[in-house]
Specification:
By secondary structure, the chain is mostly beta strands. Helix content is about 10%, strand content about 35%. The chain has a domain of about 120 residues: Tumour Suppressor Smad4 (Sandwich), CATH 2.60.200. About 20% of the residues are buried. Pfam families: FHA.
């Protein structure tokens, strides 16, 4: 047997990609303590906490409007399943947290969807889970967004777009209401 054949099977690791945005980032540098573009391991039995208190939180946001502990992420395996999940829990008494428009009050928690937008205050975080098999740890990979996440990835407009490509909002702003005409009429 060759060394290649005897080598242990490589285990894939669950990775949580998080892209952060705040409108005042350039002025206030609230993400300066985050380690961007480098994967970090978080032990499976550890809770990844995000907030202002650097003694408690692994991911520190330098902003007095952020709670000492804003929210946490816990890695776990579903009962009677081999599926690994991440749970998000709001730990702020003052600020509500939204996950894909689901509002979480203090101590509310939910499973983190595989792709979602987390919001609190002016903060926007795009979270994307890359599934893996490791039971000992998961990884985080942080990114910094230059533009608002909600504008980049928001749901398509709920207003229908007509076949001719002319939006009805143009007519409404001029005080005119569009009328439908049958193509077969002279």
């Amino acid at each position: 047997m060759s060394v290649f054949e005897e080598a242990e099977t490589e285990e894939t690791v669950t990775c949580l990609h998080m892209t952060f945005y705040h409108p005042c980032q350039e002025e206030k540098m609230m993400f300066r303590c985050l380690n961007f573009c480098k994967r970090e391991q978080v032990r499976a039995d550890d809770t990844a906490k995000f907030g202002r208190d650097s003694n408690i939180c692994r991911y520190n946001l330098v902003d007095t409007r952020v709670s000492r502990i804003q929210f946490s992420l816990q890695f776990y395996r579903k009962l009677n399943s081999s599926q690994y999940c991440l749970e998000i829990k709001n730990l702020s008494k003052r600020t509500k947290l939204t996950v894909n428009q689901t509002e979480l009050g203090y101590l509310n928690k939910m499973d983190l969807p595989w792709k979602c937008i987390i919001c609190f205050g002016d903060y926007q975080i795009l979270a994307e889970i890359q599934e893996g098999e490791s039971v000992d740890y998961f990884e985080t990979h942080l990114h910094l967004a230059e533009a608002p996440i909600l504008q980049e990835r928001c749901l398509p407009s709920l207003q229908p777009i007509p076949e001719d490509g002319i939006s009805t909002s143009i007519f409404l702003s001029q005080g005119k209401i569009p009328t439908e005409i049958d193509e077969n009429e002279p």
